[in-house]
């Protein structure tokens, strides 16, 4: 039996988005630096569209929002996402951020703590930013236009996936990301620092990393998200790199929805989140 879920594109808001599901629990999902909402295409069919309404947003310069100019800052993304939630009629919702937008989950939670029911940060860069060495920064900058450099980056961060998958990721990135915004968001990633704004936030947090992600590992999460957020828990996915929504879609879907349903249940019963 076909589930009553729909995928639709938003044209009546500042940011473009894809909607999946029609459930009562609202979840705003953000993408990484290297691709738009389509990075989640593989996981969408695994999600519970009866329990949740997911909105996969494209921030300025990506996908459905590729033509949108802007300042390309942490504050702008947070403001845009909160405006989108207003336009969707969402007074309270959950947020999911991947890599670059891991820090955006923190900014949104700090900007509107009463509205964010919980947050999920997937292989995330934190509110402390990602301080790269000059050599590493030069390499990341080179991936903006150099296909071979971008291919090497995808190959490095994924958990041993095929060359064909890497080629598809390169094509997706080139088709869905504005080069101009990539450079500005890279600057954001390496200079951001708003730790004082998020330290002590009581928002329930699930932090997810893959055990083959070479840069954003459990030790980094312990120093950042788990140190700052008293209601944070960490889950390490085995045999997985930087893209769990593509490397292990059914497992990733079950993981995030198990957390979300637990948070919803705790809210209904008026109890504090039980961390694992």
Main β-sheet, in a few words?
Answer: 8 strands, mixed
CATH superfamily: Alpha/Beta hydrolase fold, catalytic domain
The side-by-side strand order for the widest beta sheet comes to 1-2-4-3-5-6-7-8
Order of helices and strands: EEEEHEHEHHHHHEHHEHH
CATH class, please? Alpha Beta
CATH topology, by name, is Rossmann fold
Proportion in helices: 40-55%
Task: Tell me the strand percentage band.
Answer: 15-25%
State the shape.
globular
Q: Under the CATH scheme, which architecture would be assigned?
A: 3-Layer(aba) Sandwich
pLDDT < 50 stretches: 1-5, 272-276
Mean of residue pLDDT?
A: 92
DSSP strand tally = 8
How many angstroms does the end-to-end distance come to? 35 Å
Descriptive labels:
Rossmann fold, eight-stranded mixed beta sheet, 11 helices, disordered N terminus, hydrolase, AB_hydrolase_1, AB_hydrolase_sf, hydrolase activity, AB_hydrolase_fold
List the SSEs and their pairings.
Blueprint: E1 7-9, E2 17-20, E3 25-29, E4 52-57, H1 74-88, E5 93-98, H2 102-111, E6 116-122, H3 134-142, H4 147-157, H5 163-176, H6 179-191, H7 195-198, E7 205-210, H8 218-223, H9 225-228, E8 232-237, H10 244-247, H11 249-269
Parallel strand pairs: 3-4, 3-5, 5-6, 6-7, 7-8
Antiparallel strand pairs: 1-2, 2-4
Helix pairs in contact: 1-2, 4-5
